[in-house]
Design goal:
homodimer; ten-stranded antiparallel beta sheet; three-stranded mixed beta sheet; alpha+beta; about 375 residues
């Protein structure tokens, strides 16, 4: 019998359709054709003039802005759906209302290497990528005209990535996103009823249940949400209660986030042969706009990875209800096994509750790491 | 400057990103490879035993159920995400709550012809297809355990169609879809403030503005919504205020709906070379469950066509805000021109307001119609 599951946070229902169940490994991607786009790639070193001038770059002292040498580079998006303008205008024609789309759209280039997705980067480089997220988040958080900052990553053409060179994106916008408001409303309701953060409770419940936990380290828990919308939907949540991603501790917590992200994406990469996915960070409203003090108690930032392994069709569009053909328990077990394979003995040797290891497991990553630090071109062959 | 537009009904914001604007005809699809799947198609005549037994068929008197001869055939979906069971069970483990997905999933086969999408069917056959929608809608509306019936059509693989043989689907479910509730809440708000149906008002406003109207006939207005989510999103709305699709008048109104649907899909087919799309019918709750009398005054059924010409990526998933790279005024003008080309002189010869013709324009359709009525195999070559 197919089942409906309700997401505790948003109240959203998902149909887990066991009738159409497919084995997790049936989602493994076919081999892709290589796209040799480096020559014309605007994100590759030497092509700095093909983008708008950089707004941030990590580069050795003494190198010129918008020249080679950087290991992280952030530039405004050339095709911006939002623009920072001093005065937003609006226009009404009867009931037809439009206003200027105020905001900033930026591209955060993850590394100089055209062919190095996050799982194949040196661990240190992933930390630098996370640092660039924090730096740009905090920069926009100071702008009182903005309400929300979304940092996201589109990987693979089916997930909407139009350029191959690995890059994240940032949207800092002047309106409140409905999906955030939906989470916030659920968090408020739970906080009023239970006096507790619904995300903290969910993380604790997931750790107790174990079956949906994919990975853990000192600061983060990676798990398949109980009401996962798509096969292999996976969340990365900090165990420390923090409402805003801007408050990430850039020492230990940053390293742990980089590790959790890399280990998880590596399990996707190895287990499903580099599947397309989107991830994004949900974070509380910008501080300048937090009128209600309860939000910092009730909301909890987190990162949601949504692989593009199924198509949202007429049913999903028409109802807002997702049909997921893989149980999140099965996708979590599959990813746990891939992580265990890459990192020594199985994490879940007992065969029982399946709680993933608490200690960092970096050996799989280290094997592909080069000796060079950030700033050097990676030596991995394409 | 990119613009934000708000949908009057749902309050949903859409960014119309003029910076990435593409000409409407840039969405024209590449030629597809023919898929010769008839031999194994479970929806083709002669293969009736490959599906569960039919729940409805239009067939000549004297033919046996589940044998050839039908011109419309409705069968339960073999891969049902919802199932009708007398007693729905639920299961709670702490805060993890699931319940049986109660409902019915059906496949409504549009015609015996494997290769005849809606725009290429004889007009009479499209009316029969609409009649099957009404018959099955009304059948499920009598079931007091169900809350909502969604009828939808997925066309093309990128839009989630797994079988080529043209077919619609019906989901009769025991829970309230969020997208419907969102519309209903907007309709309630508007009704309280303005004492009027927000859909009736929208249709009147669109007819006055004219620029987004694609087609009209005696009963229906076809238009690109002001805050269209995707390139070429198009709605078909009855001008008579009716909350439930089940109350469609199966005389003149049914014919007019079939015409509006066929003319519109034909403009997609000709203008964009058979693009993938989803459509679905949004209709009020089932009558047995309408506790609030205001719903019949405030809600208004309609059909939404959402072509799959762009990818909902990290931004859309993470915010619930859509970015549309084509202005709905431009997509409407493009479709109007295609309709005019297929039906005689341009609808908008004045070059001015662009209101589409009120009279049925069936000549393009008639040209491909066979002399045979429904039930005969179409003679068009594959």
């Amino acid at each position: 019998m197919p089942q409906l599951r309700q997401d505790l946070i948003t109240g959203r229902w998902v149909a887990v359709a066991t009738e159409r169940a497919r084995r997790p490994d049936s989602f493994t991607q076919a081999a892709k054709e290589s796209i040799a786009a480096r020559d014309v790639c605007p994100f590759c070193p030497g092509h700095e003039s093909m983008t708008p001038p950089e707004v941030l770059a990590y580069r050795p002292p003494g190198t010129m802005p918008n020249s080679e040498g950087w290991w992280i580079r952030v530039v405004p998006n050339l095709y911006a759906a939002f623009r920072l303008e001093p005065d937003g205008q609006e226009q009404r024609a009867g009931r037809f209302w439009q206003r200027d789309a105020i905001g900033a759209c930026e591209v955060l280039i993850s590394s100089p290497d055209h062919r190095a997705p996050t799982p194949l980067l040196p661990g240190r480089q992933v930390e630098e990528m996370v640092q660039s997220y924090v730096d740009r988040y905090r920069q926009h958080a100071r702008n009182p005209t903005l309400e929300h900052v979304l940092i996201l990553y589109n990987h693979g053409r089916p997930a909407g990535a139009s350029l191959e060179h690995p890059h994240s994106q940032l949207y800092a916008i002047g309106l409140l996103p409905p999906t955030y408001l939906e989470e916030l409303e659920g968090a408020r309701r739970f906080f009023e009823q239970e006096g507790e953060c619904v995300f903290c409770r969910t993380i604790a419940d997931e750790r107790r249940a174990g079956v949906r936990v994919v990975f853990e380290n000192g600061s983060f828990t990676v798990f398949a949400p109980y009401a996962a919308r798509t096969p292999f939907e996976t969340w990365i949540a900090p165990r420390r209660h923090v409402a805003s991603f801007g408050d990430l501790d850039t020492g230990r917590e940053k390293s742990a986030l980089a590790e959790a992200l890399q280990v998880t994406l590596r399990a996707f990469y190895d287990g499903l042969n580099d599947p397309p996915f989107n991830y994004y960070i949900h974070s509380a409203l910008l501080k300048g706009n937090v009128a209600d003090a309860w939000i910092s108690d009730a909301y909890h930032w987190h990162l949601e990875i949504v692989p593009k392994l199924s198509i949202a069709a007429g049913f999903e569009l028409g109802t807002g209800i997702w049909i997921n053909v893989v149980k999140p328990e099965d996708s979590a077990a599959f990813l746990r096994e891939r992580i265990a394979e890459g990192a020594g003995p199985p994490a879940d040797a007992s065969g029982a509750r399946g709680v993933a290891p608490r200690e960092p497991r970096f050996s799989a990553m280290r094997a592909i790491e080069t000796s060079g630090g950030p700033g050097e071109r990676l030596r991995r062959s394409p």
